[in-house]
Amino acid sequence: PPRLDSSAASDVYKRQAMKRSALFLGLLALAVIWSPPLPGQDPGDDELRRKLALQAYEGHLAKLDSADTVERARAVEGMGRTGVEKGVLPLLRRGEEEPKAYIVRLIGEAAVRLDAVRTFELLRQAVARGADGSSLLERNLVILLRECPDPAAGELLLDRFKGTADKKVWLEVIRAIGMLKLEKGIPLVKHALGNKDLDVKNAAAVAAGHLASIDLVPALLGGLEQTDGFHCKFAAWALTRMDDPGVFPQVQSRLGSASGESGEAKAKALEGTAREEHVDRLVAILSASKSREYREAAAVALGRLGVRTKEVQDCLLYTSDAADESS
User: Fold this and answer.
1) Is the pLDDT of residue 238 over 60?
2) Cα–Cα distance for residue pair 141/209, rounded to 1 Å
3) How far apart are CA 28 and CA 172, in angstroms?
4) Helix intervals (H) in the chain
5) Gyration radius of the chain over CA positions
6) In this structure, is the dihedral angle defined by the CA atoms of residues 265, 268, 271 and 275, taken in order, positive or negative?
7) Which residues contact 319 (CB under 8 A, 6 or more apart)?
8) What is the pLDDT of residues 86-127, one digit of tens each?
9) What is the pLDDT of residue 32?
10) Please, what is the angle between helix 292-305 and helix 310-326, to 10°?
11) How many CB atoms are closer than 10 A to CB 31?
12) Which of 34, 58, 73, 193 could crosslink 110 through cysteines, CB 3.0-4.6 Å?
């Protein structure tokens, strides 16, 4: 075949490079669309995404960020202090920027690392200007405020947004209360646990887990019975975060039958709330419960607690033998 001169060869190379770039951008777009939700991100309206969000909170799903999100955050950091203004201000202007929530979070993290004081000042000025009616901009502002280490950021967030009626903003407020461990927001989380909206209820359960307030336990115990939107499992996760030995007896009193998702959630709560003072109760469950899920939860708890007494070992061996015979 005839050889191409240098000019023609250069044109062919450029066309091939453009095709490769187009293919890369297409794959990148798919990665953004199909990337799973991150912990703290709105789980969406369908049960599959709620399940993925639950798995993320339980530690079963790796944290994945799409390539363009990582590059976006790095770009903000690479601009030095001017990156704070260039990264943050577009998120607070109507019509200029409408990124996904996790992109806003990553930009907030980068801006705070660059200059936390300047970042908070920009956000404080935005709050002082007042609302312009944009739900998206208010959502961005809440996400950015929760990334600020200044304690005043939490106070500002509560004062400005505690009465919002917008669901997108309210979800981020509830998440922020949990992530920042704002004790003044506990009544708001308690009220949100009774909300009819599944996304709000689940976000409130996660916030309750971060707050670890005993005042929220009754509402979480009630959540163990609610299977819609996997709420029972979010509630169970929150209960396991409570550092109070009084939670375990309350979970035990609600065990009942171990059927379906509610039974799985109760077993999870039973195992996670057990403490050394509950060994006798765990042995009783292991030896007498008719539910295999509850027996397994008790066995896991005893193992986690490092109980090595002969009584416990005999009980474990007997239970194991009985399970083998029944199967």
Assistant:
1) yes
2) 24
3) 27
4) 6-34, 47-57, 67-78, 82-88, 101-129, 135-147, 151-161, 167-179, 186-192, 198-211, 217-223, 231-240, 247-252, 260-273, 279-288, 292-305, 310-326
5) 25
6) negative
7) 286, 287, 295, 299
8) 778 888 876 655 678 878 888 888 888 888 899 999 999 988
9) 37
10) 150
11) 15
12) 73
> How many Cβ atoms sit within 10 Å of the Cβ of residue 314?
12
**Whether 207 contacts 189, CB under 8 Å:** yes
> Are 209 and 237 contacting, i.e. CB atoms less than 8 angstroms apart?
yes
Lowest mean pLDDT among 41-55, 117-131, 248-262: 41-55
Alpha-carbon span 38 to 49, nearest angstrom: 10
Whether the per-residue pLDDT at 326 is higher than 60: the answer is no
Q: Which residues contact 52 (CB under 8 A, 6 or more apart)?
A: 36, 37, 43, 61
Residue 111's nearest CA partner among 137, 143, 146, 87 is 87
Question: Buried b / exposed e across 37-65, counting CB within 10 Å, b at 16+?
Answer: bbbbbbbeeeeebbebbbbbbeeebeeeb
Query: Higher model confidence: residue 139 or residue 31?
Result: 139
Q: What type of residue sits at position 88? A: V
The answer to whether the beta carbons of residues 140 and 91 sit under 8 Å apart is yes
